Every structure is written in structure tokens, then in C-alpha cells.
Amino acid sequence: MLQTQNIFEKEFAKETIFLDRNMITPHYTPKVLPFRETYIEDISNLVSKTLKGQKADNLFIYGKTGTGKTSVTKHVMEQLLEFASQKNLPVEGNYVNCRNHNSKYRILVKIVKEFYPEENFLGFSAAFVYEKLLDYARKEKHLVLVLDEIDKVKDLDELVYGLTRCNDELDKGSISIIGISNNLMFKDRLDPRTKSSLCQHEMIFPPYNAQELSEILEQRTEIAFKPDSVEGSAIHLAAAIAAQESGDARTAVMLLLHAGEISDKKGLRKVTDLEVKKAKKKVEEELIFNMISTLPEQQQLVLYAISSLSVEKKPMHKITGAIEVGVLFSGEIYDEYCRLSKKFKETTVSARWYRQYISELEMYGLIVSTNSGKGIKGQTRLIKLGFDAEKIKGLIEKELAT
């Protein structure tokens, strides 16, 4: 019987222009974070109080995706904990991605599990887990809790109020919070007590400009690609596209990553402008789907109502005889949203908050809205989805099912 070659032998033997592909993925956090030195210093100044046995003030960081919020915060925390360990200081930290742990109970369990790795807290009440956290801090520990994508927490007011007020019960030790959010308007929805507790200090991370993105990409290219395998013009083009779209470093990095993959697939030895242009559509689609998955559930429900109606509704016929495809009335979307809220057992927000969600979805570029104008009886707001309705509907269904 003939020995057949392993199916992966051919793939393994392929030439690649990557030196280390992992270095050009959005998940890699570089040790040097250019153009964010001021923010690193400001956050360091805040958390450094813990090294002197004092409680650090709470901090709320927000800004668009890809502006370095998480990378900077993780970098500062790594440095803080490394220094504390070297000096044998009772400072500890914990990072929680609130998209994966989206309730007070899940977050508390995630935190205490790391402080008590030998114990199992599943099945115990939130009050019990909360007390365990306090007991740990009472050992004269100063804890800094990083809550990333904090806007995804369902019972956030209860969580933040509890964590910030727990210091009143601590004679020794302390608990501080760093909250991170991509949602620029999220703070406005917080309960006044929560806002005053969480937002002792605030930082807004601005988007990067084209020149900054070029330098970031040049830095990444040196460690991710083989020498002279990426043309300078390709780097500048990726930076220009990302700066024009959002100022998002992730967009720029993903453009070069996919451009490199296209080059590899074609057996090319260089990444040129052409590969970057071809990568643009795929990256845009990935970013849109990623943005949708990070939206709070109420916004996802509004977007789900829009995508569902866009799929089902027939084209609109105007009095003038013109036909509009995929155009919806604001009122019918709200009615569908209310129906879906009941179906998924979610609280239905008022019409005022619904209009706020519509404005935010438009700000993110997910929908387009206009006044009805000529050809339609009365005055109303017309809304149209900016992307493929079937794909968005399917994506949100997966998100709501989790």
C-alpha cells in the first residue's frame, strides 16, 4: 500500500513573507506604545498610590475601538504588579473582559477565583462572593480591578456602587476600579451615584492620525515581516485608509495582516498597494461585525429590529412613483423593537432612549437616517441599514443567544 503524504506537509513547506505573523495581529500588545506616553504616565500616577499603602482613585477611560485604551491599561498594570512583586508590596490586580463576564455575579466570581484559585465559588450567592473579596482586601491588600468593555455589564449600577462603597467597610486594604468603554455616550446612561463613584477621573483616548499610524505600522512591520517584504507605500496606504475611516490602529494592523496573507496565497514576495486595497473590503466587514458584537444588548435589539424588517419588508413606493428599497419608518422600528424586547425578556426602553440609540447607531456608521421629505405623507424619520441585512441579522441572533 502506497504511503500518502500528510495533508499539512505542503502547507508547512510553503514560503511566507511573515517573520512572525502573531506580531501583526490585533491581539498582540507591543512593549512600546508610541503616542500614548502621556496616558501611560497619567494612569501610572493614579495607581502608584497603592504602592504607598493608599487607595487609588477610580478611573473611567473611553474612546473609539483601536485607540490603545486596553493596551495602555494592561501595560501599566503589568508594570505596577511587576514592581510590587519585586518590592514585596501588597498590591494586586485583576483584569475582566465584561463581554465574556457580563453580570455582577460573573464578574465577582471571576475576580475572587483568581485570588482564591483552590476554591470553587459557583453556586454561592453574590453576597457570599462579595464578602470573600472584602476578606481578601482586609489582608492589607490594595486591589486594582480593570473592567474592560464595562458597558456590557447588565447590572452595572449595582456592581459599581457595591465595589466603590466596599471601601467604607475596609479598615485595611482597598479596592479601586478602572473602567474601559468604547461607547462614547455610555457615561450618560449611568445612575448619578454610579457616575460619581466610577468617574473620579476620566480619560478620553483620541483616534490616531495617518502619520502616527504609519509609525505604528513601521514598528510592527519590522518584527512581523521578513526584511524588505513590505513596500513603504503599502504601509502609508494602510495608515491613510485607517485614519480616514476611524483613526483605529486595529484597522491599520488588520489591513497589513490580510494584505500579507493575500501575498502569501499568491506566492508573492512583497506586499504592495494592490494587496492593501484588496484587503480593505474584508477588514471593513470584520470590523463592522466586531463593532456589533460589542454593542450593549438594547442597541443590538434596535439593530436587530432594523435588520429583521429590512429582510422582510417590501420596497417602499412613494407618491412620486419612486421606489425605495430597505427604507423603514422610525415608528415601525420602535414597534418591532418593543416586540423583540418582550420576546427576549428584556426591559423595553422609552421612545426617548430609542431615539438616542438610533443616533448612536448612525454615529457608528451602521445606519443612515433622513427626514421623509417629498413623496411621503406626513413628516417622519426614514432609516436604512448601512450593510447586508441578512448577515447583520444572523450575527445579532448569535449574540443574543449567548
Notable features of this structure?
10 strands; Rossmann fold; three-stranded antiparallel sheet; alpha/beta; globular; Arc Repressor Mutant, subunit A; Helicase, Ruva Protein, domain 3
Give a structural overview.
The chain has 402 residues and is α/β, with parallel strands linked by helices. It has three domains: 37-204, 3-Layer(aba) Sandwich (Rossmann fold); 208-293, Helicase, Ruva Protein, domain 3 (Orthogonal Bundle); 295-401, Arc Repressor Mutant, subunit A (Orthogonal Bundle). Helix content is 50%, strand content 12%. It contains 15 helices and ten strands. A five-stranded parallel β-sheet has the order 2-3-4-1-5, sandwiched between helices. A three-stranded antiparallel β-sheet has the order 8-10-9. The protein is globular, with a radius of gyration of 25 Å. The protein starts with 8 loop residues before the first helix and ends with a helix. It holds the Pfam family WHD_Cdc6. Belongs to the CDC6/cdc18 family. This is ORC1-type DNA replication protein. Residues 303-396 form the Cdc6 C-terminal domain.
Quick summary of this structure?
This is ORC1-type DNA replication protein. The protein has about 400 residues and is an alpha/beta fold.
Please report which band the strand proportion falls in: under 5%, 5-15%, 15-25%, 25-35%, 35-45% or over 45%: 5-15%
Write out the strand line-up for the largest beta sheet, numbering strands in chain order: 2-3-4-1-5
* Annotated CATH architecture of the largest domain: 3-Layer(aba) Sandwich
| Shape, per Cα inertia axes | globular
Helix content: 40-55%
From the alpha-carbon coordinates, what is the Rg to the nearest angstrom?
Answer: 25 Å
CATH fold assignment of the largest domain: Rossmann fold
Q: SSE order, as H and E?
A: HHEHEHHEHEHEHHHHHEEEHHEEH
Q: What is the total tally of β strands? A: 10
Number of helices: 15
